[in-house]
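Bumping my old thread because nobody answered last time. Still need a sequence for this structure:
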């Protein structure tokens, strides 16, 4: 489990995070696009209960600004 905000958040269905990373990568076509570290960052971002409140700040901004903000929040703007 990853500590986010002030509490531990379990992975859905009790599956290990590594398996969720693989499922998400396969389902989204992200294999070869984002590395495993970025996949982990995406999962941590999604599990963080404060994410929605932070992302609400981008409502009404351009789509490109919203996408940039989400990618930045996930730690996925860097190229390797």
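Sorry it took so long. Here it is:
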């Amino acid at each position: 489990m990853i500590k986010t905000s002030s509490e531990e958040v379990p992975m859905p269905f009790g599956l290990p995070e590594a398996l969720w990373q693989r499922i998400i990568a396969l389902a989204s076509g992200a294999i070869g696009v984002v590395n495993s570290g970025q996949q982990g960052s995406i999962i941590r971002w999604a599990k963080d209960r404060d994410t929605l409140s932070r992302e609400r700040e981008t409502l009404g901004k351009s789509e490109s600004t919203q996408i940039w903000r989400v990618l930045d929040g996930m730690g996925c703007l860097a190229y390797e």
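The chain has a mean pLDDT of 79. Let me know if any region looks off to you.
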